[in-house]
Amino acid sequence: MGGWKLEVFKMGLYMSFPVALFHWFNQPEYFEKWVIQTKRELYPPENKEQKELIENTIRKVREKQDIKLQDALKEYQNK
After folding, report:
1. Pfam families under this entry (predicted)?
2. Phi/psi at 19 (5° precision)
3. What is the pTM of this model?
Protein backbone atom coordinates (compact mmCIF):
# COMPACT_ATOMS: atom_id res chain seq x y z
CA MET A 1 0.00 0.00 0.00
CA GLY A 2 2.36 2.70 1.21
CA GLY A 3 5.50 1.16 -0.08
CA TRP A 4 9.00 1.90 1.04
CA LYS A 5 8.32 5.62 1.60
CA LEU A 6 5.77 4.85 4.30
CA GLU A 7 8.15 2.39 5.93
CA VAL A 8 10.96 4.97 5.93
CA PHE A 9 8.60 7.53 7.47
CA LYS A 10 7.46 5.09 10.17
CA MET A 11 11.05 4.09 10.97
CA GLY A 12 12.05 7.74 11.20
CA LEU A 13 9.12 8.43 13.53
CA TYR A 14 9.89 5.39 15.68
CA MET A 15 13.50 6.51 16.04
CA SER A 16 13.00 10.26 16.40
CA PHE A 17 10.15 10.19 18.95
CA PRO A 18 12.15 8.67 21.85
CA VAL A 19 15.19 10.77 20.96
CA ALA A 20 13.09 13.95 20.93
CA LEU A 21 11.52 13.08 24.30
CA PHE A 22 14.93 12.28 25.77
CA HIS A 23 16.24 15.61 24.52
CA TRP A 24 13.20 17.53 25.81
CA PHE A 25 13.08 16.05 29.30
CA ASN A 26 16.83 16.11 29.89
CA GLN A 27 17.30 19.81 29.40
CA PRO A 28 19.30 21.17 32.38
CA GLU A 29 16.87 24.03 33.00
CA TYR A 30 13.86 21.74 33.04
CA PHE A 31 15.63 19.16 35.19
CA GLU A 32 16.88 21.72 37.72
CA LYS A 33 13.44 23.32 37.94
CA TRP A 34 11.79 19.96 38.54
CA VAL A 35 14.39 18.81 41.08
CA ILE A 36 14.31 22.07 43.03
CA GLN A 37 10.50 22.14 43.08
CA THR A 38 10.27 18.52 44.23
CA LYS A 39 12.95 19.03 46.87
CA ARG A 40 11.13 22.07 48.29
CA GLU A 41 7.87 20.13 48.43
CA LEU A 42 9.47 17.22 50.27
CA TYR A 43 11.81 19.25 52.49
CA PRO A 44 10.46 22.77 52.98
CA PRO A 45 12.87 25.41 54.31
CA GLU A 46 13.11 25.39 58.07
CA ASN A 47 11.20 27.98 59.98
CA LYS A 48 12.89 29.00 63.26
CA GLU A 49 9.57 29.53 65.04
CA GLN A 50 8.28 26.10 64.06
CA LYS A 51 11.57 24.48 65.06
CA GLU A 52 11.47 26.14 68.49
CA LEU A 53 7.82 25.14 68.94
CA ILE A 54 8.62 21.52 68.11
CA GLU A 55 11.62 21.48 70.46
CA ASN A 56 9.56 23.00 73.28
CA THR A 57 6.79 20.47 72.75
CA ILE A 58 9.28 17.59 72.82
CA ARG A 59 10.85 18.96 75.99
CA LYS A 60 7.42 19.29 77.71
CA VAL A 61 6.44 15.73 76.76
CA ARG A 62 9.76 14.38 78.09
CA GLU A 63 9.34 16.33 81.33
CA LYS A 64 5.85 14.88 81.81
CA GLN A 65 7.19 11.38 81.17
CA ASP A 66 10.03 11.95 83.64
CA ILE A 67 7.58 13.13 86.31
CA LYS A 68 5.40 10.05 85.77
CA LEU A 69 8.42 7.76 86.00
CA GLN A 70 9.64 9.49 89.16
CA ASP A 71 6.20 9.17 90.75
CA ALA A 72 6.03 5.49 89.81
CA LEU A 73 9.52 4.95 91.25
CA LYS A 74 8.56 6.68 94.52
CA GLU A 75 5.45 4.52 94.82
CA TYR A 76 7.50 1.42 94.17
CA GLN A 77 10.07 2.39 96.77
CA ASN A 78 7.40 3.14 99.38
CA LYS A 79 5.94 -0.36 99.13
Report:
1. Pet100
2. -65, -40
3. 0.44
- Amino acid, single-letter form, for residue 26: N
What integer pLDDT is reported at residue 63 of this predicted model?
A: 97
Which helix (H) or strand (E) segment holds residue 31: the answer is: helix 28-42
Question: Are residues 56 and 37 both part of a single domain?
Answer: no
The single-letter code of the amino acid at 66 is D
Alpha carbon distance 2, 10 (integer Å): 11
C-alpha span between 57 and 62 (Å, rounded): 9
3-class DSSP string for the chain: CCHHHHHHHHHHHHHHHHHHHHHHHCCHHHHHHHHHHHHHHHCCCCCHHHHHHHHHHHHHHHHHHHHHHHHHHHHHHHC
